[in-house]
């Protein structure tokens, strides 16, 4: 059985909406300023991006000129919209042709539902930085979001029978000039990661062992957030677990992960220009201790503790001991044996062959001679 999950992701939207710019910022280490020299996408540009080790995104960046879109909906319909895991559709908040933009989106969403009914849909309303000064309450964004949701509901009523489900639609305001872009793309990636529940559970265990507030895993190249300990990603404070509440996570910046991504990518580019290699960092402040270290070949882990007794050496020691677990979950879609932690924790439920057979050891059990 293959150990790699391949997910097809469509990146679509009208020409000039910012699709290629955001792709270049996220996946090619472009700065927002660098994107000014990019040209329009011609037809479809495909690229493969590996996350963790068990997930490969097949990203289809589809040109948004009218003749290309018309071709996607006719001659290439079965090719473009088949076997899609996620559609990321980008709108330009400054567009003066909103009704036409909506009609194109409705045609594309209809084709998607006909060919990939379970695909998730992310709507990125882009270039928010151009409008925020004159519309600080983001009234226009809320209006655009409501229009998009109405289109989705209308298509659902036409194409789905009673009791049927469809991929959930999510909407984000974005700009390539701030951390909002990382927040939106992290949301996409998080839902596609195999074994995400197990990764979250083990991160929570690691967090507790380190007497930390949270443990967060970032993808090494893009520095998008993959998973975090405790409550699910983007949870409101009302859903925080005991450790998060005790550590004061509710008062932390809700956009801290995305800001960290932006800062680290910028610092890493500086290191590259000076010929230095970025390996991570550690620091002990008055109010917290922070460690950022490589976790697996494709990830970094950030652990934050507010306990004054905690030293960075302790956190690094626990990270080293946890690396084998994260590597196991990251490298496989199907796990053939459980680790000792999973066997002894009833909350970490998943099926594995031989789990009830005492002669089958946990994969992290060194045995009597280990």
From TrEMBL:
The keyword Metal-binding does not apply. Keywords: GTP-binding, Nucleotide-binding. Pfam families: Gtr1_RagA. One of its GO terms (cellular component) is nucleus. GO terms for biological process: cellular response to starvation; negative regulation of autophagy; positive regulation of TORC1 signaling. GO terms for molecular function: GTP binding; GTPase activity. InterPro entries: Gtr1_RagA (IPR006762), P-loop_NTPase (IPR027417), RagA/B (IPR039397). Belongs to the GTR/RAG GTP-binding protein family. GTPase involved in activation of the TORC1 signaling pathway, which promotes growth and represses autophagy in nutrient-rich conditions. Component of the GSE complex. This is GTP-binding protein. It comes from Naematelia encephala.
């Amino acid at each position: 059985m293959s150990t790699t999950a391949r997910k097809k992701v469509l990146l679509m939207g009208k020409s000039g909406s910012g699709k290629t710019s955001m792709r270049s910022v996220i996946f090619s280490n472009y700065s927002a300023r660098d994107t000014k020299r990019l040209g329009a996408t011609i037809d479809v540009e495909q690229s493969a991006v590996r996350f963790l080790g068990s997930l490969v995104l097949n990203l289809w960046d589809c040109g948004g000129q009218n003749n290309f879109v018309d071709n996607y909906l006719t001659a290439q319909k079965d090719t473009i919209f088949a076997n899609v895991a996620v559609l990321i559709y980008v709108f330009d908040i400054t567009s003066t042709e909103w009704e036409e933009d909506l009609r194109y989106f409705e045609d594309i969403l209809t084709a998607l539902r006909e060919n990939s009914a379970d695909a998730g849909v992310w709507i990125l309303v882009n270039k928010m930085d151009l409008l925020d000064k004159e519309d600080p309450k983001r009234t226009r964004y809320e209006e655009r979001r409501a229009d998009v949701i109405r289109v989705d509901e209308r298509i659902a009523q036409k194409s789905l029978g009673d009791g049927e489900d469809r991929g959930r639609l999510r909407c984000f305001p974005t700009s390539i000039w701030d951390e909002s872009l990382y927040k939106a793309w992290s949301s996409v990636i998080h839902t596609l990661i195999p074994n995400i529940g197990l990764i979250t559970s083990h991160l929570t265990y690691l967090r507790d062992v380190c007497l930390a507030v949270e443990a967060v895993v970032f993808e090494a190249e893009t520095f998008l957030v993959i998973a975090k300990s405790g409550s699910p990603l983007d949870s409101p404070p009302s859903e925080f677990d005991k450790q998060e509440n005790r550590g004061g996570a509710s008062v932390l910046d809700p956009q801290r992960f995305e800001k960290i991504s932006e800062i680290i990518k910028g610092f890493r580019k500086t290191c590259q220009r000076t010929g230095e290699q970025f390996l991570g960092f550690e620091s002990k402040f008055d109010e917290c201790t922070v460690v950022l270290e490589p976790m697996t070949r494709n990830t970094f882990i950030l652990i934050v503790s507010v306990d004054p007794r905690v030293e960075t050496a302790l956190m690094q020691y626990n990270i080293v001991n946890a690396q084998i677990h994260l590597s196991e979950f990251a490298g496989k879609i199907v796990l053939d044996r459980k680790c000792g932690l999973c066997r002894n924790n009833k909350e970490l439920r998943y099926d594995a062959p031989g789990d009830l057979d005492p002669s089958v050891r946990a994969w992290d059990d060194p045995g009597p001679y280990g």
